[in-house]
Amino acid sequence: MKVCKRLSETIRFLFARNWEDELSDELEDELREQASVVVREYGWHEVYAATFTYLAKNCASPESVVNFAHLYFEYDWNRKVIPSPHRFLAYLYFRVNCNPSKYDAIDIFDTLATSILPICGYQEADLMIDPRYTPELDPKIIAEIEAWKQRELK
Q: Is the N or C terminus of the chain more exposed, i.e. has fewer CB atoms within 10 Å?
C-alpha cells in the first residue's frame, strides 16, 4: 500500500519528539488533537499503515522504539484495532533484544500488549481474564520476534 507523502510527514512529525520532553498542556493537547485529526482525515487503516511503516523504517534502536511506544500510547492509538497485532508488538520486543526491563520499557510494552491484543480479539491478553498474562511469554509474540530476526538476516 502506497502511503501519501503528506500523511507520512504528519506521522514523522508526531513521532519526531522525545516523549519525556516537558511540554505545555496546550502543546500536548495540540499534538493529541493533531493525532485525532489525522485519523479522521485519512482513516485509521491508512494512518496505521503509515505509522507501522514509520516504525519499521525509522525505529531500529531500543531507545527509538521505547520512545515510539510511549507516543503511540499518548495518542491513544492503543485503543484501535490493528492488523497483525502480534507482529507489531513483536517488533518492539525485537528491537530491545527481548529485554524491555533493560530499557525501562516493561510498563509501556505491557500496557500496549494488554490494551491492543484484547481489542483485536485476543482475549488471552485481557488481564481481567488472565491477570498473569505476560507478553514476553506469549507464543504468538515469540514466533513473530523470530520472524523479525529472520527478516533482518536477509
A: C
pLDDT, tens digit (0-9, with 9 covering 90-100), for 86-100: 999 999 999 998 776
Q: How many residues does the chain have?
A: 154
pLDDT given at position 67: 96
What H or E segment, with its residue span, contains residue 118?
A: helix 106-119
State in Å, rounded, how far the first CA of the chain is from the last one.
22
pLDDT tens sequence across 97-143: 877 677 678 899 999 999 999 999 999 999 999 999 999 999 999 99
Please state the φ and ψ torsions of residue 3, each to the nearest 5 degrees.
Answer: -95, 135
Closest to 47 in 3D by CA, of 66, 74, 72, 69:
72
